[in-house]
Design brief:
Length: 382
């Protein structure tokens, strides 16, 4: 009896579509196993693309509703598991229709583009402001700089650069990044039909969006590519590690302990993905007293957060992770972001701008080395 039930149960499961991808979970390799006991008690293990998938309850309800009416089934238990890296790769191949993945030029061993991902443990620490201003400071020195706004849900880079309503030009299958202030910029916000449209994607779709911004966009020859990552250690952080293993990671935190603790997790995640954490930036570090002047610093959010993160990561990762700098609180930094005219452009002598310009210089002072790169040379015949 149990074996005869497997066919109807699998047929019922084939009617359950993944809520986001809109294709049957059986077709996507999401059904790990089905077991049926003598009394008809059925247990189904479904593979989620990532742990903590926001659609897990929807999937559980849909599977239960589909299998319960099958004649002979007395009960349905849905167990959830998580896909391995190999299974996620197989799913991506399925979604591409069996076509090979496009090559990411920045992941090539002979790429001379320095790739810097700006990460944080939590939102609201000013990661995007740091990314935009450092990228502009680099471009001001004559470097060719690209910016990928990889914060798919909370994309704010276009607005900070004053191009929130701009759309990239498409030439055949190639997307041209939006040029602004000497940068080349792409963001999911520029690819949406409407500025107010909400992005509600998860695992495979997020990975696909990141890969598209790296492969389908014509970047040309860049000296530096900066990625503004979403906060935390979720899908995009994992995908960045998988697709750009040579990427350097800069961790942004504020001085307060709550932000510093989660910032350490972001740095640890980067190391787990075999990326090097190149330094820590402490944003909103202090407020210059409006009465006493620069000699009096007011620690609005406490102190020591950046140094603590750097020390913890240095000990945990086994190499020196320095504090790249401290960015003071400055209302002009916020105002310039809201107006789309970043501070390093409008007032480069402001203390916050000067700190960001100094960090940009530090990050670009050491280019990518050739160690480990395949130079395409072969010994001459004798």
């Amino acid at each position: 009896m149990t074996s005869t039930l497997l066919g109807p149960i699998n047929a019922a499961l084939a009617t359950v579509n993944d809520p986001e991808i809109k294709r049957p979970i059986t077709e996507l390799g999401m059904v790990k196993d089905v077991t049926v006991e003598a009394g008809g008690a059925t247990a189904i293990t479904v593979l989620l693309t990532v742990a903590g998938c926001p659609m897990k309850d929807t999937i559980t309800r849909a599977v239960t509703a589909a299998v319960t009416p099958v004649p002979g089934v007395s009960s349905v238990t849905v167990n959830l598991d998580v896909m391995s890296a190999e299974q996620r790769q197989a799913l991506q191949t399925t979604l591409r229709g069996g076509q090979p993945a496009k090559e990411i030029p920045f992941a090539r061993p002979d790429s001379l583009t320095k790739v810097i991902a700006v990460a944080s443990g939590k939102g609201g620490v000013g990661k995007s402001s740091v990314t935009v201003n450092i990228a502009l400071a680099m471009a001001a020195t004559g470097r060719k700089v690209g910016v990928v706004d990889a914060d798919v849900y909370g994309h704010s880079v276009p607005a900070m650069l004053g191009v929130a309503d701009e759309r990239p030009t498409q030439v055949e299958d190639m997307i041209m990044p939006v040029p602004v202030h000497g940068l080349s910029v792409i963001s999911i916000g520029m690819l949406k039909p409407r500025r107010d449209q909400v992005v509600a994607w998860r695992g495979p779709m997020l990975d696909r969006a990141l890969v598209q911004m790296l492969t389908d966009v014509y970047w040309g020859d860049l000296d530096v590519l900066m990625l503004d990552l979403p906060p935390g250690t979720g899908d995009i952080a994992i995908s960045t590690g998988q697709h750009l293993p040579n990427c350097e990671v800069v961790v942004v935190t504020t001085p307060q302990a709550a932000a510093a603790e989660v910032a350490e997790r972001a740095g640890t995640m980067a190391s787990m993905m075999h990326q090097r954490v190149t330094g820590v930036i402490e944003n909103m570090s202090y407020l210059v007293c409006p009465h006493c002047g620069p000699e009096h610093r007011i620690d609005v959010f406490g102190s020591g957060g950046g140094a603590g993160v750097a020390a913890t990561l240095s000990a945990r990762l086994g190499y020196d992770v320095p504090v790249l700098g401290e960015v003071p609180l400055d209302i002009r930094l916020r105002e310039s972001g809201d107006s789309g005219q970043p501070l390093v452009l409008t007032d480069p002598d402001a203390p916050a701008a000067a700190a960001l310009i100094s960090m940009a210089s530090t990050l670009t002072s050491k280019g990518r080395g050739l160690a480990g790169m395949q130079l395409g040379l072969s010994p001459a015949g004798r």
